[in-house]
Amino acid sequence: MLTSQRKNLILDMLRREGQVVAKRAAGEFSLSEDTIRRDLREMAAEGLLRRVHGGAMPVTPDLPDFTARQAISSDVKRKLGAAAAAMVKPGQMIFLDGGTSTAEIARALPRDFAFTVATHSPTIAAELEHHPTAEVILIGGRLYKHSMVATGAAAMSQIANMRPDIFFLGVTAAHPVRGLSTGDFEEAAIKRHISACSAETITLLTVDKLDAVSPHVIMPVSALSGIIMQSGADEARLAPYRAAGLDVMEV
């Protein structure tokens, strides 16, 4: 079997199962463990996976700070934000997570009917300062500066009394087996809490967030109502999300 074929099989296993156990992969592919371990080392050097004892895990995305992420906001995120904003209906309450993609939602929100925006992000609230029809509710608490969102017991208590129609969730990674994840324990907890209080949860994804895993799990992908996805992703990578019953909108 060619090296490229072996590596493709390893990547397929990683996407399908969320991990590669070298011993199991060797048995499944009828190869030696030494061969699999050598391939895993090479693939880790190429940035295709992350080596762990006994095998490999999906890559963990870098976590640039909020200011750095603002600087790389792109046309892709503007398209994602516009598609999300178009889902909002008159009289609804939506909850906007922190982040650069959700900032694009705030900028694209309709201006010809009234609705309510709740957020635990002061930067998102500031985006809506001059919006003519949006009522804005800002949740307070301990500020997690990396993402510029409020976390902790005070924020959780305020959110518990809300029932948003749609929560637009921000994540750093999405994997069909390992779920939706982010880089901070407290941030993951509050995202999970907002979703539990909301009628629907929608996440916006760029291609680089697919098949990746960050340290702290928010919830399984099956807990989502839908995904607004950057166009151009291989259909094989999207198939597990569709199989989970999710509406995947490509823009």
TrEMBL record:
SMART domains: DeoRC, HTH_DEOR. InterPro entries: Carb_Metab_HTH_regulators, DeoR-like_C, DeoR_HTH, NagB/RpiA_transferase-like, Tscrpt_reg_HTH_DeoR_CS, WH_DNA-bd_sf. The keyword Iron does not apply. One of its GO terms (molecular function) is DNA binding. Residues 3-58 form the HTH deoR-type domain. Keywords: DNA-binding, Repressor, Transcription, Transcription regulation. It comes from the Bacteria. PANTHER family: GLYCEROL-3-PHOSPHATE REGULON REPRESSOR, HTH-TYPE TRANSCRIPTIONAL REGULATOR SRLR-RELATED. This is DeoR/GlpR family DNA-binding transcription regulator. It comes from Neorhizobium phenanthreniclasticum. The lineage of its organism: Bacteria, Pseudomonadati, Pseudomonadota, Alphaproteobacteria, Hyphomicrobiales.
